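Please, structure for the following, as tokens.
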Amino acid sequence: MSTNIARRTVVVVAVDDDFRVRESIESLVESAGYSPQLFSSAEEFLGSGKLAVAACVITDVRMPGMDGLELQRRIRRERPTLPVIFISAHNAPETRQTALKEGAADFLYKPFDGGALLDKIRAALTIDNK
């Protein structure tokens, strides 16, 4: 029971301009016992104050306004060890390579398997807690 209570305090942020993707991630994160926080843009997330409490950020690459790569760069300035997992509908190997080179915990393509994303979240949280 204490593990579940502790897990519920772990904030997993999802930043994606697609409502359906955010909703899917919310259900997935809640089913694993984590606390989801959802944002439709990078700007909305950065302005929310949630960067300070996030344990992991899942972000789309292509979004109106600030893209996911720039979001990752801004996160790195304030929270260099905060895990960032990218999800993208666009198969762009150079974007994936850039994200990983700049410190992304992982990179998945849409549509993603829920179990695979949960595995990536758990692995990222383990790395961040070491």
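The domain at 2-128 is CATH 3.40.50.2300 (Rossmann fold). Confidence is low (pLDDT under 50) at residues 1-5.
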